[in-house]
Amino acid sequence: MEVVAQYAWIIWIALILLFVVIEVTTLELTFLMLAIGSGGGLVSGLLGAPWWLQIVTGGIVAVLLLFTVRPALLKALKKGGDPTPSNIEALLGLHGTVVVPIGLDAGQVKLTNGDTWTARLLTTPPMPGESITPLDTGAPVVVTAIQGSTALVVPVRRD
After folding, report:
1. Nearest to 135 by CA among 150, 123, 147
2. How far apart, in whole angstroms, are the C-alpha atoms of residue 97 and residue 77?
3. pTM
4. Residue from 8, 70, 4, 5 nearest 36 by CA
5. Where are the domains of the chain?
6. In sequence order, what are the residues at sequence separation of 6 or more whose Cβ sits closer than 8 angstroms to the Cβ of residue 54?
7. With CB atoms counted within 10 Å of each terminal CB, which end of the chain scores lower, N or C?
8. Non-local CB neighbours of 23 within 8 Å, separated by 6+ positions
9. What is the pLDDT of residues 26-82, one digit of tens each?
10. Which CATH architecture has domain 88-155?
11. CA–CA separation, 114 vs 151, rounded Å?
C-alpha cells in the first residue's frame, strides 16, 4: 500500500491521459468528465490526502460533472444544428421530370435539385395479362424511395 500511496500521482496522470484519449475517439463528453474527476484525485493527492480519499474525491468530482455539467454541455452542442434533411432524406418527396421514358425497364428523371437519377416506377408486380403504363418524357414524378442508386418514383396526377 505504501507503493500505491507514493506513486498515486503517476496512476492519476495515466488515468487522465487514458480518459482523454478515449474521449477524443468517442466525443460524448463522458470520459472528459472522468478525466477531470481524475484531475481532482490528482490535486487531492498532491495536497497530501491519503490514497482512499483521493479515490473518493476523484469519484465525487467525476459523478458531479457527469450529472450536472455534461447534460448542459451536450444540450449546448446540439443547439443550433441544421435541421435540413441530407442524403437520401433530402431526395424523398422531391419532384422531377422524366427525361428517359420509364416502363418495365428503368428510365431517368431529372429532379428539381438538378440531379439526374436512374428511375423505376414504384408499383406492385403486374398480374398476368396486365401491363405497366409507361411514363413518357416530360411526365411529372415524385421520388418515394431510393433503392441503391435508383430512385423509385410515382407519377404526379395533373388535376
Report:
1. 123
2. 40
3. 0.55
4. 70
5. 2-78, 88-155
6. 8, 12, 41, 42, 44, 45
7. C
8. 29, 30, 31, 32, 35
9. 999 999 999 999 999 999 999 999 999 999 999 999 999 999 999 999 999 888 777
10. Beta Barrel (2.40)
11. 14
